[in-house]
Amino acid sequence: MFALKVFVSLLAVLSQSHARFLFSCKYPPSQWCDSKEIAAECGVLEQCMNAFNVTKPNEGAVNVSLYYESLCPGCRQFLVGQLVPTWIMLQDIMNFELVPFGNAQETPEHKFVCQHGDDECLGNMIEACLLNELGMTAIPAIFCMESAPDVLKAAQLCVGVYMSGEIWDSVMKCVKGDQGYKIMHENAVKTGALKPPHEYVPWITINGEHTDDLQDKAMNSLFSLVCSLYKGEKPAACGLGSGKKSSSYCMN
Predict the structure, then answer these.
(1) Considering the entire predicted model, what is its pTM?
(2) Cβ atoms within 10 Å of 151's Cβ, excluding its own
C-alpha cells in the first residue's frame, strides 16, 4: 500500500509537467536537472528539486546497490516496496544503483539466457537501456514497470507517462542494437565480479559490501538500515515508518 501511494503521487506530479516539456524543452533528459534554468524550461523543476534531485551526492551518504532481474518476484517486491520509497524519503543521505542482470548467463555466442526466460532478458535490457539513457531520471518508469502486473506490457506505457514516445523509440533502438548488448555485458561482468559471489537475487550491497547480516537488515527494513548507518545528522524522515518487508528470493 505504501508503494502504491508513492507511485500515485509520482504519477500526479510528473503528469502535470509532461505536456509542457514535450513542446518547450530542447534538452535531452540526461540534462534536465543540470541547472534550475534547464529544469524550469523542461517543466521538471519541482522534480529536480525534490523527488528526482540529482545534485552532487552527500559524500557521507549510504550507497545501496541492487543486483536484480526484472521478473524475479522478490526483486520486484524489494525494489517497489523498499528501495525506491526509501530513496524518495532519504535521498539526502542515500545513493543507489540498479544492476539488472541477476542470475542470467552470457553465452559464448554473445547472447543472454535468463532465469525467467526470454521475457526477463527483454525486461532486463529495457531497464538497462533506460538507466543508460536517463540515469536516475529513469527510476519512475522502472518503478512503474516493476509495480505492474505484467512488466513488459507496462513498459511502453510507463515510459510514455514519465518521458515521451521519442524516449521509448530511443530505448528500443538501444535494446535491439549493439549498445544494449554492451550495457548488458557490462552488467554481467559487474555481477560476476561480486565478492562474495552472488547466490540469489535480490542481492544487496551496502557501501560496496555484502554480508548475510546486511542483506537480512536491508530485506527487513532498508529504511531503518540506511538511517542507522548514516553518520551525520539524521534527517527528520528517519523518525518515520519504513516500507514493506521483503523476504523472497530467486536462487542462482
Answers:
(1) 0.77
(2) 23
